[in-house]
Every structure is written in C-alpha cells, then in structure tokens.
Amino acid sequence: MSRVAVITGSCGGVGRGVVEAFRAAGWRTVGIDRPGQFGSGADVELSFDLRRLAESESAMAKLASLVRGAVGPSRIDCLVNNAAVQRLGSLGDAKLEEVRETFEVNVIAPLRLVQALLVDLESASGSVVNVSSVHSTATKPGFVAYATSKAALSGMTRAMAVDLGGRVRVNAIELAATDTPMLAAGFEGRPEAFRELSRCHPLGRIASPLEVGRIAVTLADPAISGFVTGCCMRVDGGVTCRLHDPL
C-alpha cells in the first residue's frame, strides 16, 4: 500500500512542486487548498478554508473527516503544512485583520491540523513537515507580520518535536526565494531586480518548487531521516550566511 502525504496549499507554486515530488517518489497525495482552487496534480483534492480551524472544534473535526474519507483504509504517513499567507507592509501600516489572517493560516492552522490528524500520524509512526521561511531568523523591512508568523512556526516545530518525541517526527524547511508565479508577478517589468535577487544567493540562483518538494520527501522518509526531528533546515541557497554590508 502506498504511503500517503497530506499537503496544504497544494495549488500554489511551492505546493505543486511538493505534490509532484511526493508522487514521483511513489506516495499517494491528498491536496488541500482554498475553495475554488484546483489543479494541484494531487491524487485527491480537497477544498477547505484553513482560517476556519481557528474558529471552532467542529471545523477541525470536519477537515479531519474529509481527509480520512479521502485516504480511506490507508495510513496518513506525512502532513506537509505548506499553506501560507504573506501580507506585506510596514509596522505602522499593519492592519489587525491582515495580522490575524496571517497567524490563522501560518501558525494556528498547522497546529490544529497536527492535532486533528495526530492519532493517524501516530499509528503510522509518521511525520510532519512545516514549510517555514528564512524570514524566521533574517528578515527585511515590510515583513513584520509574515516574519513573526514564520518565527512562530519554526519555534512550534521544535516544541512539537520535543512534545511528541518518538511518536511523530516534526521538522521544518526554512525556505528562501523560490521560482513561483507569485514571485515572478512581484518582479514583473523589473528583470534586473529579479537577476539581483538571484545574485544575492551564494549559489547564484533561487530555488525551484520541485527542489523544495524533494527536501520534504527526504524529511518524510523514515529510511533516510528516521533520526531527524526538531530540525529547521535552511533551504536558502546560502543567502542567510551572507552579509550584504556595503563595501
């Protein structure tokens, strides 16, 4: 029986890469994304607004039921918390509703999903992979809400790993710039700025979604990463190692 990975934010640029990587490795995939979002390539696609997980126990129970119905008799071997909200703006411009949405999707939803599927993950001796960000430790102006939420997600990864011990492994990918349609749209009409972004990384380029997905598969595979838990792996092309002080 194929191993099963549940992947949130499956229709986004990174999410599609994660789905592709798990499927290429022989896993069955269940993708979760916002209502109306389809085309992730997952074996099963579920529509659900993850912000609802911050509202009630019934929402958590409903999503767990949907996932279990999609999985059927199979085990749930991995949960990839990839869905994220990124609202940009300075501290003075931060709106309460945007900050709240950021934390509901980036922090509360991953926590609630692990709670909802914990019995399933435990029975499979499975794992959780949280998609965090380099902004958890090194950020720049205009990212106050996003950076804070990703710092919380990385911290929660370590805390969950300690709390769950050998029952469920929990790790995170701290991701730098990745070649997605959303990123490309932000640099539309500014090709030199995009090239400069690539040059900022010691590897001289940004990540591909499929590369991110392959890292997630590696962390999920107990044969490779069975002794890895509480790890927040920087997948950043070396960008957080490099100083950008003026010469």
What is the gist of this entry?
By secondary structure, the protein is of the alpha/beta class. 44% of the residues lie in helices and 15% in strands. It has a seven-stranded parallel β-sheet with strand order 3-2-1-4-5-6-7, sandwiched between helices.
Overview of the structural elements:
It contains 8 helices and 7 strands, in the order E-H-E-E-H-E-H-E-H-E-H-H-H-H-E. The protein has 247 residues and is an alpha/beta fold. Strands 3-2-1-4-5-6-7 form a 7-stranded parallel β-sheet, sandwiched between helices. Helix 3 packs parallel to helix 4. The longest helix is centred in the middle third of the chain and has 28 residues, at 96-123.
Any descriptors?
7-stranded parallel sheet, 247 residues
Q: Give the % helix.
A: 40-55%
State the total count of DSSP E strands. 7
Name of the CATH superfamily: NAD(P)-binding Rossmann-like Domain
C-alpha-based Rg, rounded:
18 Å
Biggest sheet, open or closed, and with what strands and sense? Answer: 7 strands, parallel
CATH class: Alpha Beta
> What is the terminal-to-terminal distance?
57 Å
By DSSP (H or I, 4+ residues per run), the number of helices equals 8
Strand content: 5-15%
CATH architecture: 3-Layer(aba) Sandwich
How much is the average pLDDT?
95
Could you tell me the CATH topology label.
Rossmann fold
Estimated structural class: alpha/beta
From the spread of the alpha carbons, the general shape counts as globular
Total tally of structural domains: 1
Q: Reading side by side through the largest sheet, how are the strands ordered?
A: 3-2-1-4-5-6-7
Order of helices and strands: EHEEHEHEHEHHHHE
User: Uncertain regions: pLDDT < 50 for 5+ in a row?
Assistant: none
